[in-house]
Automatic annotation (TrEMBL):
It comes from Anaerotalea alkaliphila. Catalyzes the phosphorylation of 5-dehydro-2-deoxy-D-gluconate (2-deoxy-5-keto-D-gluconate or DKG) to 6-phospho-5-dehydro-2-deoxy-D-gluconate (DKGP). It comes from the Bacteria. Pfam families: PfkB (PF00294). This is 5-dehydro-2-deoxygluconokinase. GO terms for biological process: inositol catabolic process. Its EC number is 2.7.1.92. Keywords: ATP-binding, Kinase, Nucleotide-binding, Transferase. It catalyses: 5-dehydro-2-deoxy-D-gluconate + ATP = 6-phospho-5-dehydro-2-deoxy-D-gluconate + ADP + H(+). Residues 13-317 form the Carbohydrate kinase PfkB domain.
Amino acid sequence: MNKLVFQEGRELDLVATGRLAIDLNTVEVNIPMEETTAFKKYLGGSPANISVALAKLGMKVGFIGRVADDQFGRFITNYLKKTGVDRSNIVVDKSGAKTGLAFTEIKSPKDCSILMYREDAVDLRLNVHDISEEYIASAKALLISGTALAASPSREAVFVALEYARKHGTVVFFDVDYRPYTWHSVEETSVYYNLAAEKCDVIIGTREEFDMMEMITMKGNTDDGVTARKWFDFNARIVVVKHGKEGSYAYTKEGEKITGAVFPVTPVKTFGAGDSYAGGFIYGLMNGMDVAEAMEIGAGSAAIVVQSHSSSEAMPTLEQIREFIANYPKQ
Ligand SMILES: Nc1ncnc2c1ncn2[C@@H]1O[C@H](COP(=O)(O)OP(=O)(O)OP(=O)(O)O)[C@@H](O)[C@H]1O
Ligand SMILES: O=C(O)C[C@@H](O)[C@H](O)C(=O)CO
């Protein structure tokens, strides 16, 4: 395919927007949460995790978001500082809204779940005035995540960010990141996801996430190619459909279908796969790799992260990913 064009000479590689949250990952694994007694705190939230992944890979990353004016908010900004993510566009929210919390349960390597506490979540207080046109114009790419569309005023803020990105030729990555409990109805969800996807250059989602997006107008479709082709009539150049440990497929506007590498491992837990995959994949595309190579970096990163305890802290460096892939037993 013709490679995506990223504007040269911009200060930042990528600006992410959306939730900055906390993961509280169970310390005791392979037992139900009813019986666990301890949780370890990490930075969480899908776009936050992807930002950390990219920063660990050496990218210059910034974040547009809101954090609570409390200990969790400060933990998040301190962690981003340590990782090298630019915090100049993170607003400290004084409304009393709370940091979103994700308590994770690891019942077995295959049976994991997340119990979310997102009542009055501070990340959804992001508003249009928090979105700086200049900041988006200073980055080669923008990452949006679907959960930020779940409520106003964050929803409008995302659409304003998309407008600025299109105006300034900032390439838009859309991580579908569908978390049902944040939404009121499937109809609302599907409509807003579709409106946002129209404006994006690269769309990354799981088969189940695309099923949700197709719930109204393409109900029953299970064909990834049909899913992808819809978006090429808008702005999309690449659509990635993920299938868990079975791997992923990328479709390009030029008509290619690329089967992504996958490095099956026995995970410690299933979550974190999508965010690490996105980080590696975006890194690859932004560093001149072709789609297949970028997918391989994403899959290698995901295989490392699912074998680790966290989603953010465990994000690997490029050397670690390359070493993992080189040492992975040949099938
Ligand atoms: N058990 C596994 N072993 C190795 N790689 C895996 C495994 N599970 C997932 N992956 C890799 O991670 C990629 C993304 O996984 P998946 O489709 O589960 O995303 P997701 O549902 O967005 O993840 P998450 O559970 O973090 O929300 C897969 O395409 C695959 O490359
Ligand atoms: O995205 C979230 O809010 C939770 C994540 O931080 C968590 O680590 C996860 O689900 C990653 O897939």
